[in-house]
Amino acid sequence: WTKLFQSEAVVSTQSTGVPCSLFATASQKKKMGSLVVQDNFQHILRLANTNVMGRRRVMYGLTAIKGIGRRFANVICKKADIDLNKRAGELKNKDMDKIISIVNHPRQFKIPEWFLNRQRDVRTGKYSQLYSNNLDTALREDLERLKKIRLHRGIRHMWGLRVRGQHTKTTGRKGRTVGVSKKKGG
User: Fold this and answer.
1) pTM of the predicted model as reported, rounded to 2 decimal places
2) Contact (CB, 8 A) for 53 and 44
3) Residue 171 pLDDT > 50, yes or no?
4) 3-state DSSP call for residue 116?
5) Which one-letter DSSP state was computed for residue 117?
C-alpha cells in the first residue's frame, strides 16, 4: 500500500514496517509517526525569539510567532516560494532568512498596506508589521499614551474595566463580591 508524502516520494511499507522510498534510501530517512524525516531535520527552530515546532507545516509553524497569523503566514510562504506542504523542520537557512526579511520589510515584497498589523503609526505615520517583542512594546506604549492623555479608553484600562462598551452590571466581575451580603445576627 502506498502513500504520497510532502517530498513527493512514494513510500511503501513492507511487512517489516521499514519505509523504503524511490528517491532516498532507508538510511537517509527515519520514520517519525506518519512523518518521514530526513537526517537534516530540525525538531525545534528558533525564529524571531520564538521556538517553532519542526513537525508542523511551515505556514502553521509561523503562527507560533506572536503577531503572525495564518493569513499573513500564508502570504509569507507564497512570497518566499516555500511549498505549503513542507514541514518547518525541513527549512534551510536561506529560507529562514528570506522569511525574516519578508516579515521585516513586507512593503518591499508587495504585501498591501491593509494586510499589516500596524497601520499609520501614531508617532511615525508609517505602515509596518510588528511581531514578537516589538508588538508587546508598541501595545504597552499605546496604552501608556492613552492613560497619559486621560482618554476615556485609557482611564478604563487604568481602572481595569471593560473598554469596548460592554455591559458590566452582571458580567466581568473577576472575583469581586457577587450578590447581596446579609447581616449576621438578628
Assistant:
1) 0.68
2) yes
3) yes
4) coil
5) S
